[in-house]
Structure formats: structure tokens, C-alpha cells
Design a protein that fits this description.
- This protein has 17 helices and no strands.
- By secondary structure, it is mostly helical.
- Helix 11 packs parallel to helix 14.
Length: 395
């Protein structure tokens, strides 16, 4: 469907403002992101607590469990995007929300690492919710406001990532490890009810001829940039216990500090995303992508030279503030050139690949080489993907 075409009025609220339905989609996505991150903030500590394996083997299990859902979801995301050509996107959105809620609840009562990994794999196969949200938004948003609404959608997830970690960590300290899973279940089903009541239904997004198609090379390397941007955002939680131990914090203090650090850098990710995307009409999408990637790569390297919790947190906040905008900027570039549901699903799968690679890369490189190698690897990948993306667009 052409977002600005004549049929748009059938897919948005009667008032004619596409932002109305998009805000409701964003709020529902916030609930999902909150539930994921309410759990993920303390998951490394939970795995270390229940593990029956040695430390090195446990670290490998930790990386798999933290990244398993996203790796499977990366494979499923284009499939979910293609389903919108046959099934109403809102129905798919609601199915994904419901299934995730059930898995969250079961995970709270599992103490076997293989079984926990299995549940995470199932959760990944049932994922793709954010892909459907992207399709719903691009079907409703006017082309000239698409970067703004995709940024809103990204920030709804960032807000969930911002609020979820401290609440999850504090719930553990007050009520034990089972409580955040129950909180996640409640939030997910409130999101489901809210989506069902307020998100306007649209018809299946049948493929239609478009006046132009996005460049294949641009899609591929845009996907790579999406992966790298997500790695920047998601690699840290799985190794925070190690980093905070190096800053001489006790286990209890490290648990609380981890949630606070995650809250702080997700707050700047939220703010940086909003500010950079708001400049897109004046500076252009490509120029902003260059600025964000170069700044984030430099700050990634500076993390190694932090001397304590405060300097580490400050550098991390600046870094995420720059890199968070890359994802909606890349998606806006491709969607604005005619990318459909399958293309958006492919780009969105980059977020899931980054979610999976982030913790696995962090734990693997840290256990064998150290923090400096890890930081330089991420910075180098950022520069390589940026250069390839720019070269593909010139071609």
C-alpha cells in the first residue's frame, strides 16, 4: 500500500491524523520492550546463580541464552513481514504479544540452563512483533513524516529498555528472582488489551507495483549498519558483572548499579534518537548516519580508558546517544525509496541479529582476549559497515 495513497483514509482513525493510531502502536511496543528488559537486566546474575557448570562454561551458556531469542527472531522477521500480505497485521501483532507473555511467565520458574535456552528459542520463533509494528506504521504514515514516526517507534522500545532494567533489578532485591517475570506477564497482557482496543485494524498489505525500488546494495549494508547499531546498544548487559567487579563493587551493589547504568544510557539513547532524527530535514539522512556512526565508534574505544563507574557511565551515555538514531535513519532511507513489508522485515531482522551477536560477541571475546579487543572490534565493525553502506549508495 502506498502510505500516501488514496486508500490511506481506510487505515487510520476517522479523524484523519495518522499519528493517532501510530501512538497506540508505539505504546503497545513499549510494553513488549519493557517486559524483555525488565528480565534482561538481571538475567546474567540469575544464570550465574542457578548454573551447575563451571565459570567458563557458564559464560558460554550465558551468551547463548542472552542471544538465542534474537538469533531465531532474525530468521523469522522477514517471514513475519511477508505474512502481512496474507493476514491482517493487527491480528499478527496481537498473536505475537500473547505468545511472548506466556513464555515470560514460564521462564520465571525454570532453573535448568538447557531448558531456559529452549524457552528462549521458542520465544524467538514466536517473535517478529516489532516487524508487524513497522508495517502498521509505514502503511499509515505520510512519506514526509515517516522518519519521525519510525523514530517514535524506536523510542517506544528505548523507553521500555530505559524503565525495565531498574524496575527488574529492584524487584529482584525486594521480592526475589520470580517477581520480574510476573511483572512482565502483567505488562504484556495490558499491552495486548490496549492494542486490541485502540490500534485501528488495516487490511493485509498485498504487494503492489511501486514506481521505484530501493537499491539492493543499500538494503544489504543498511542491514549491516542496523546490526552494528544494535550491537552497540546490547553488548554491555552480559558483561556488566565483570566490568563492575573490576570497579571493586560488591555483588549487591553491582546488581543495583547495573540497573542504574542501563537506565542512564538508555535515557540518552532515547534523547539522542529524538534529537538527531529531528535534524533529518535540514542535514539529510545520510549525513546524520555518518555523524552518528563516527562518533559512536570513537566513544566505543574511549570506554577502555574509563577509571571508575562514573566516567564509564558518562562515556557509555554519550555513545548510545549517538548510535541509537542510526536504526530509524537507515529504515527511513530504505522505506522512503519504496521498501515493502518483506524489505522492512529484513532490515528489522538486523536488530535481532545484533541482539544475538551483542552478548555472544561480548562474552566470547572477553573470555579469550579482554575488554580492549572487544571495544576495538565493535568500533572497527562500525567503520567498516558505514564505508560499505556509503559505497553501495554511490554505486
Amino acid at each position: 500500500m502506498n502510505p500516501a495513497g488514496p486508500s490511506m483514509s481506510q487505515d487510520v482513525p476517522p479523524a484523519g491524523d495518522p499519528a493517532t493510531g501510530i501512538y497506540f502502536i508505539a505504546i503497545s511496543q513499549f510494553g513488549i520492550a519493557f517486559s524483555f528488559n525488565c528480565i534482561m537486566s538481571f538475567m546474567p546474575f540469575y544464570i550465574l546463580k542457578v548454573s551447575a557448570y563451571g565459570m567458563q562454561e557458564t559464560m558460554l551458556w550465558l551468551g547463548l541464552i542472552m542471544g538465542a531469542t534474537s538469533m531465531v527472531a532474525a530468521l523469522a522477521a522477514p517471514f513475519w513481514g511477508s505474512l502481512t500480505a496474507r493476514i491482517r497485521p493487527k491480528l499478527l501483532f496481537e498473536i505475537g504479544i500473547f505468545c511472548n507473555g506466556v513464555i515470560f511467565f514460564i521462564m520465571g520458574f525454570v532453573e535448568s540452563l538447557p531448558l531456559l535456552l529452549t524457552l528462549r528459542l521458542i520465544q524467538g520463533a514466536l517473535g517478529g512483533v516489532s516487524t508487524i509494528g513497522l508495517v502498521l506504521i509505514t502503511a499509515s504514515a505520510p512519506k514526509d513524516r515517516l522518519p519521525k514516526y519510525l523514530s517514535l517507534f524506536q523510542n517506544s522500545m528505548t523507553a521500555g529498555q530505559l524503565i525495565g532494567p531498574p524496575l527488574g533489578a529492584y524487584a529482584v532485591t525486594l521480592f526475589g528472582y520470580h517477581s520480574p517475570f510476573i511483572i512482565a506477564l502483567v505488562v504484556v497482557f495490558f499491552s495486548l488489551a490496549y492494542c486490541h482496543s485502540h490500534v485501528r485494524d488495516i487490511t493485509a498489505q498485498h504487494n503492489r507495483p511501486r514506481p521505484g525500488k530501493p537499491r539492493t546494495g543499500g538494503i544489504l549494508w543498511g542491514w549491516g549498519l542496523t546490526i552494528v547499531g544494535t550491537i552497540h546498544l546490547m553488548f554491555l548487559p552480559s558483561i556488566l558483572p565483570h566490568i563492575l567487579e573490576g570497579f571493586q563493587l560488591t555483588e549487591q551493589a553491582a546488581l543495583t548499579t547495573a540497573g542504574t547504568i542501563m537506565m542512564a544510557y538508555m535515557a540518552t539513547a532515547f534523547l539522542g534518537n529524538y534529537l538527531l532524527v529531528s535534524l533529518s530535514s535540514r542535514l539529510g539522512l545520510i549525513r546524520l548516519i555518518i555523524i552518528a556512526c563516527l562518533s559512536a565508534a570513537a566513544l566505543q574505544g574511549l570506554l577502555y580508558f574509563s577509571t571508575g563507574v562514573y566516567s564509564f557511565t558518562l562515556i557509555r551515555m554519550l555513545q548510545t546517544g549517538m548510535i541509537a538514531a542510526v536504526i530509524p535513519l537507515v529504515m527511513s532511507t530504505v522505506a522512503g525509496e519504496g521498501g515493502g513489508g518483506t524489505t522492512l522485515g529484513f532490515l528489522n531482522s538486523g536488530r535481532f541479529v545484533g541482539n544475538a551477536l551483542g552478548p555472544m560477541m561480548a562474552t566470547t571475546i572477553l573470555s579469550h582476549f579482554g575488554l580492549l579487543t572487544l571495544y576495538l572490534t565493535i568500533a572497527g565493525l562500525t567503520l567498516a559497515m558505514l564505508l560499505a553502506f556509503l559505497a553501495s549508495r554511490r554505486t
